[in-house]
Amino acid sequence: MSLKVYIDGELVDEEDAKISVFDHGVLYGDGIFEGIRSYNGRVFRLEEHLNRLYQSAKAILLEIPLSKDEMQKAVISTLQANGLHDAYIRLVVTRGKGDLGLDPRKCPKPTVFIIASRINLYPEEFYQNGLALITATTRQNSLATLDPCIKSLNYLNHILAKIEANNAGFLEAVMLNENGFVAECTGENIFIVKRETLLTPPTWVGVLEGVTRGAVMELAKEIGLSAREEVLTRYDLFNANECFLTGTGAEVIPVIRVDGRTIGTGRPGEWTKKLIAAFRELTQREGVPIYG
Ligand code: PMP
User: Fold this and answer.
1) Residue 181 phi/psi, 5° resolution?
2) Active site residues
3) 187 touches ligand 1 (CB under 6 Å)
4) I want to staple 36 with a disulfide (CB 3.0 to 4.6 A). Which of 54, 88, 89, 126 is the partner?
5) Contacting residues for 18 by C-beta, under 8 A, at least 6 apart
6) Which pLDDT belongs to residue 62?
7) How confident is the prediction for the chain on average, in pLDDT?
8) Is any ligand 1 atom within 6 A of the Cβ of residue 247?
9) Which of 134, 130, 211 has its CA nearest to residue 175?
10) Cα–Cα distance for residue pair 75/69, rounded to 1 Å
């Protein structure tokens, strides 16, 4: 059965889900997006994802032609049209069709599309055994260039960092900010446990304010692990007791090596394992129901 894709108010077969070659999302990466998950027939933290989408839109002066309620309905009907319960949802809003110049005033109507599909996960062995990372030479954008809190369609520096990881035979790479502080990975936030405290870089270092990151900070406190934002260096990563990544796709995934340095015992840490379990449990009980 062909996938149904939401595009500008309609649900169409994937073969018919097309946008113009003059769309500034394609010509200039002028647009924003969200990656969302549903578990067990419920959309996880949908409101938070929509809030972030509308904040990204505001930051780039893009007026989304749907209210948040309408957008929520559009997400739910896309999932319903595909009969999905456990899914990955990609929601994209571009500046829309314009001319070949980059002036956004030439784009009268933003393009909105939603793809809901099955999810591609990291293989389970990495949740059991952990990931090894390298640090990419490609840096995260500075706040003065493009604030990483804006989840924009400009991911080229992340892709270059991912290529560095691929070339070196790794699955993920740490990205530093312009000053050499740890920012995040190409598609996940990063955390360490240091002396029984959970630490993650503050957003002003230049990181996306991840929805999973927020959920994990809450869960940490619930399981008795104090958690706060702190500026981190590679030295802090190397000497951490535990390390893990968070993201909608990856959920919570342990890290056991960074640039050849073994983290902690070289096995996923005890707090990390507790957070993986707590996060999985949370995803099963929370969320906006798809089927009433
Ligand atoms: N950082 C980056 C650069 C991302 O693209 C993502 C989302 N894939 C994340 C962090 C994690 O954010 P979230 O938990 O909201 O998926």
Assistant:
1) -85, 155
2) 151
3) yes
4) 89
5) 7
6) 98
7) 97
8) yes
9) 134
10) 10
DSSP 27: H
In this prediction, residue 195 carries a pLDDT of 93
Mean pLDDT value across residues 27-51:
98
Residue for token pair 């981190």: 232
Asked whether 211 lines ligand 1 (CB < 6 A), one says: yes
Residue nearest to atom 13 of ligand 1 (CA): 210
pLDDT digits (tens, 9 = 90+) for 209-238: 999 999 999 999 999 999 999 999 999 999
What are the structural domains, with CATH classification, of the chain?
Answer: 4-117 (3.30.470.10), 124-283 (3.20.10.10)
CA-to-CA distance for 174 and 125, rounded, in angstroms? 21
- The predicted-structure confidence for 153-183, as pLDDT tens digits, reads as follows 999 999 999 999 999 999 999 999 999 999 9
246 ligand 1 Cβ < 6 A: yes
In this prediction, residues 105-118 reach a mean pLDDT of 97
Judge whether 145 and 269 are in contact, CB under 8 Å.
Answer: no
Residue 103 in this model has a pLDDT that exceeds 90? yes
Which atom belonging to ligand 1 lies closest to the Cα atom of 207?
Answer: 1
Ligand 1 centroid to Cα of residue 248, in Å, is 7
**Residues contacting 285, CB < 8 A, separation 6+:** none
Nearest to 79 by CA among 5, 152, 129, 15: 5
188 CA distance to ligand 1 middle (Å): 5
